[in-house]
Amino acid sequence: MARVDVVVWDIGRVLVQWDFPRIWQDVIPDDAERAAFTSTVVSEAWHARHDAGESMDALIAERIARYPEHRALIERYKTHWLLSVPGPIEGTHPLIERLAQRKVPQFSITNFGADAFALFRPTFPILDHMIDIVVSGEEHLAKPDAAIFDLAAQRFGHDPARMLFIDDNAANIAAAQGLGWQAHHFTGDASALEIDFVARGLL
Prior knowledge:
The chain is of the alpha/beta class. Helix content is about 45%, strand content about 10%. It has two domains: about 5-15 and about 85-200, Rossmann fold; about 20-85, no CATH class. Strands 3-2-1-4-5 form a five-stranded parallel β-sheet, with helices on both faces.
């Protein structure tokens, strides 16, 4: 197994839970009705445009113009966004702490809108261990585009072949590996990730 010196984390569904419909759970309690709303009026695909660089205000204005009868619900996308990240992923935060104790450099590449990240970052101090975080919405580049990995490698100052990239999305993993990064496809099992770290001599 090739040597790894650096760990690069995804954030959503690796370090923190991500539940987009939860923004409307208390105002649309019926599961079927909420599912319909979050697949038509708003959706994760629509939200992905925020990850790619569009502002929350622009996205909200567009949706309200199309669905004016849902103005109050659409506006919750910004005012209640933090409801979509209800808590940490079990087991990954202790691994970050252990890597930090061993002085392993840690970074992050995340598909995250700039406005959303500004709301989220102060609530998530585990990210203090990251030397640098490449945020897709700030760069107007999103995974799995090769450009965001190239930008990250330049900013982090390490050879991709010596960096272990951890992500829950198979397409992102494939893109990173195609560019010479080491990678771990995270499927929710922190114990499997720990085993990988140990095998690579990181823990």
